[in-house]
């Protein structure tokens, strides 16, 4: 049963759609469905998807788990740990976290998993971590996330508080390479860019947005560059193949 609608923002009026990953996660963890935490993620998730038909919107669940994390997977659900959410002081900070996961969906970062993975959801999530979370994709998700937050009316600096809290958490654990973007951290193989690099990239993107730039423009440029590269590579391969097929064998072999 969904909570009653109240205030200017609201939870979509539909029963939660069921997918196999969500069902297994709900069976594994306690989901906080009432109180301020659930209300906050419902509110920001709705605000971020105002341009999406109600029946196609993603849901966000708050999980009681030890990890300070947020993640998503195949299906239509975003997951945020209660431990992370309680460190975010405003809706804007929470919105950036949710928007980042929503961006992975909108950018097509999530692969389809065959039904065979349903028997091993933890292994499936581990595999998704490797496939989805690369520095390049995380950068794109950050930039799309800030675009979504701005479109929903959230303040950029308030959104970036989420990354400031992430920096504090990383430093508390002694993960200096995860925070400072220096030569050492750049040489370390990580799933995400250093936190300060993420902040700098977002701020640069926001400045470019003021000039009319959007991530979609960058993605189109990259796609065109890939097509040119493939065309050149294909042309070279065809030339080599023709040369190998048509060249005459050395004298004396026939």
Structural summary, described in words:
- The protein is an alpha+beta fold and 254 residues long.
- The chain has two domains: 20-213, no CATH class; 214-245.
- It has ten helices and four strands, in the order H-E-H-E-E-E-H-H-H-H-H-H-H-H.
- It has helices at residues 20-28, 36-48, 82-85, 91-106, 121-132, 135-151, 156-172, 183-187, 195-209, 215-246; strands at 30-31, 59-64, 70-72, 77-81.
- A four-stranded mixed β-sheet has the order 1-2-4-3, sandwiched between helices.
- A hairpin with a 4-residue loop joins strand 3 and strand 4 (77-81).
- Helix 2 crosses helix 4 (91-106) and helix 4 (91-106) packs across helix 6.
- The longest helix has 32 residues, at 215-246.
- Residues 1-14 have low confidence and may be disordered.
Taking the sheet with the most strands, its summary is: 4 strands, mixed
In which range does the helix fraction lie?
Answer: 55-70%
Termini gap:
83 Å
Unreliable stretches covering 5 or more consecutive residues: 1-14
Helix tally equals 10
Order of strands, main sheet, comes to 1-2-4-3
Strand content: 5-15%
Element order, helices and strands? HEHEEEHHHHHHHH
What is the radius of gyration? 23 Å
Structural class, from helix and strand content? alpha+beta
Mean of residue pLDDT values? 83
Q: Got a strand count?
A: 4
Number of domains: 2
Question: What characteristic shape results from the CA principal axes?
Answer: globular
């Amino acid at each position: 049963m969904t909570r009653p609608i109240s205030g200017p923002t609201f939870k979509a009026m539909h029963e939660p759609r069921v997918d196999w990953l969500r069902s297994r996660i709900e069976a594994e963890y306690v989901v906080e469905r009432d109180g301020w935490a659930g209300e906050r993620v419902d509110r920001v998730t709705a605000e971020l998807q105002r341009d999406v038909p109600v029946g196609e919107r993603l849901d966000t669940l708050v999980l009681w788990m030890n990890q300070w994390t947020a993640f998503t997977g195949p299906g239509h659900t975003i997951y945020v740990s209660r431990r992370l959410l309680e460190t975010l002081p405003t809706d804007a900070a929470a919105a950036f976290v949710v928007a980042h996961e929503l961006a992975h969906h909108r950018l097509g970062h999530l692969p389809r998993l065959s039904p065979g993975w349903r028997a091993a959801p933890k292994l499936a999530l581990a595999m998704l971590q490797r496939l989805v979370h690369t520095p390049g994709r995380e950068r794109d998700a950050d930039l799309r996330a800030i675009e979504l937050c701005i479109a929903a009316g959230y303040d950029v600096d308030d959104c970036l508080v989420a990354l400031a809290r992430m920096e504090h958490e990383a430093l508390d654990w002694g993960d200096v390479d995860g925070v400072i973007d220096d030569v050492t951290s750049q040489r370390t193989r990580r799933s995400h860019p250093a936190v300060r690099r993420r902040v700098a990239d977002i701020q640069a993107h926001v400045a470019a947005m003021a000039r009319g730039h959007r991530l979609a423009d960058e993605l189109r440029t990259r796609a065109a560059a890939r097509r040119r590269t493939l065309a050149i590579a294909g042309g070279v391969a065809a030339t080599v193949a023709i040369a190998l097929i048509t060249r005459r064998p050395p004298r004396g072999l026939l």
